[in-house]
Design goal:
Shape: globular
Radius of gyration: 14 Å
Number of helices: 5
Helix content: 40-55%
Number of strands: 4
Length: 113
């Protein structure tokens, strides 16, 4: 299984910056990020997007908060010239839909950040 150390310096920089900006935007949140998809597997093309699962330890995330998160991800995308595709999950979503195959795939191939 690949780890964060297996990623390029640019990929690690993108992940660090996204993490930093989310913490700044939502200082009260505890969250985990997991990189998945082609970049986690190591078979990405130079123009592949970065698929990131953001698991927030809160009961629910409002639509407005999701918009703010997507804005932050968009800003980091522009700054680093890479498309960030973010999947946002809270406790309620994991309890209701935790058995979706996407979550199983992420658990199998993902790289915790």
């Amino acid at each position: 299984m690949r780890t964060v150390e297996d990623l390029s310096e640019t990929e690690r920089s993108v992940l660090r910056e996204l993490q930093r900006r989310i913490q700044r935007e939502f200082p009260e949140w505890s969250f985990r990020m997991t990189l998945f998809g082609s970049r986690a597997r190591g078979d990405a093309d130079p123009d592949s997007d970065m698929d990131i699962l953001l698991e927030v330890e809160t009961e629910g995330i409002s639509f407005a908060q999701k918009q703010r998160l997507r804005r932050v991800a968009g800003e980091v995308s522009i700054d680093f010239s890479v498309v960030i595709s973010i999947l946002i999950s809270d406790r309620r979503l994991r309890e209701e839909r935790g058995d979706f195959s996407i979550f199983q795939n992420i658990q199998e191939e993902g790289i915790p950040v």
